[in-house]
Amino acid sequence: MYKFATASAMIALTATSALAQSATEISWWHGMGGRNGEVINEISQMFNDQTDTCNLTPVSRGTYEEALSSGIAAFRSGEHPNILQVFDAGAATIIAAQGATIAAEELILAAGEEFNREDFIPGVRGFYADSEGKFIGMPFNSSAPIMYYNTEAFEAAGVEPPKTWEEFEEIAPAIVEAGYLPLTASQLTWMMVENFKSRNNQEFATNNNGYDGVDGTEILVNDENTVMMFEKLKEWADAGYFGFYGAGWADNLKPFEEGQSAMWIGSSGSFGGLQKSASAPFSADFMPYWGSIEGAGTQSFIGGAALFAMAGKPSEENECTAQFFTFLTSPEVQVYWHKNTGYVPITEAAYEMAKSEGYYEEQPVAEVGIKQLQLPAGEWTAGYRMGFYPQIRSVMEREFNRIFSNEVSVQDAFDIIQQESNDLLQRFARTAG
After folding, report:
1. Rounded CA gap, 278 and 282, in Å?
2. Which domain holds residue 283?
């Protein structure tokens, strides 16, 4: 059981004592700000308060992309941190960087700490692991794409929230009749491509979704089912059932916050913010899937980021990093993180602790993402591993804008995405090799 400091002590990161001065110093670079960044500071202080031998300093490096870029640049100059937070789209980049990281599982076991993959929630286990299931990165701020819905809008329309996209098509006219825009969604790359693949158990890339190596990996997005999903989105947009407001996360959230949209596909990690910003009462359910696709209804991919242990550090620093990973995944710390940020607790023990405390009776929406990550797995639900994926997302976003502005057909857009993405993957393979 870990000791928890007082609120004032948790924030007092500058406190220095004789013990702290003699402790082994380790650093953690991350890409989070606002309240999430504050909670990172608090958790870091909690760790420091319960050990005499290690002292962790968290440092915000801007955005996810900036943290990844600065971490890789620092590694090349030998001035890198012990721990680097890397977002989902950047996982392949850091993993393929030769000699840059030590697998989290190996680091923990080498330090004599306990580690069991089965302790983690099913939907969390695979994304930052290798093809054999070994944890390369330590999952940290994990989330799932879920469907938030305006309860007043559904009462006015006299319909129930949809479980499938077929049900959405059936109820959308009644929602419009009640005076609401039926649906918006933030980040179509994550929601309607990546998690379309996972929720409907569809292959996303060759080489086992990219897990089996970078050579020859090709993305698979111009298939009939993915194209069908976007043809439906375009059809719904033209009919007034779906609102598309570009690639900006907040732009697509705003209609839901203002009570104009009945549904928003967003992150389970947005729950805390929505409690403060939503102008109408809301609840949530799983992200819909297509009932017409055989084997659909499986769990989703996680979003968010993981922590990677950087290589080239002294053994005593690696031991402190391992101790922090063990501390971070303890039930008490995970529940603290979960309640203060909205991200899911990544272990079964933490989930059970939150349940035993009655948290989900008070906040049932906070449990939706966890339950979605515990849905049955499929052949293609563990995750994906593709290099230059942030650039691939940019290609997708460009073409999605062209789809909804009537500049290109859905099929042609996805043919372009497939070609340009595979060009990037080939270039990444040459770079990684």
Report:
1. 8
2. 146-299+388-431
What region, left, alpha or beta, does residue 383 occupy, with left being phi > 0 and alpha being psi -120 to 50 degrees?
left
206 lies in the same domain as 254: yes
Per-residue pLDDT reduced to its tens digit, 49-63: 999 999 999 999 999
> For 210, which DSSP code?
T
Residue with tokens 């942030």: 390
Give the Cα separation of 387 and 217 in Å (integer): 9
Distance CA 250, CA 166 (A): 27
Asked if residue 258 and residue 188 are part of one domain, the reply reads: yes
SS3 of residue 388 by DSSP: coil
229 & 253 share domain:
yes
Regarding whether 153 and 126 lie in a shared domain, the answer is: no
Q: Are the C-beta atoms of residues 276 and 353 closer than 8 Å to each other?
A: no
pLDDT < 50: residue spans in the chain: 1-20
| pTM (two decimals) | 0.91
Looking at residue 396, which CATH number applies to its domain? Answer: 3.40.190.10
Q: How many separate domains does the chain show?
A: 2
Measured on CA atoms in the order 393, 399, 401, 404, is the torsion positive or negative? Answer: negative
Residues in Cβ contact with 429 at an 8 Å cutoff, skipping those fewer than 6 apart: 214, 215, 216, 217, 387
Q: Using an 8 Å Cβ cutoff, are 302 and 373 in contact? A: yes
Q: What DSSP string describes 10-69?
A: HH-TT---HHHHHSEEEEEEE---HHHHHHHHHHHHHHHHT-SSEEEEEEE-SSHHHHHH
Q: Is residue 152 domain-shared with residue 278, that is, in the same domain? A: yes
* Whole-number Å distance between alpha carbons of 33 and 14: 19
Q: Based on the domain organization, do 60 and 206 belong to the same domain?
A: no
> Is residue 2 in a domain?
no
**CA gap 68, 92 in Å, rounded:** 11
Assess contact for 33 and 60: CB atoms under 8 A: yes
* Residue 185 to residue 392: CA distance in whole angstroms: 19
Q: What is the pLDDT of residue 377?
A: 96
| Strand-pair category, 181-185 with 303-310 | unpaired
Residues 286, 147 contacting (CB under 8 angstroms): yes
Whether 134 and 128 have beta carbons less than 8 Å apart is answered as: no
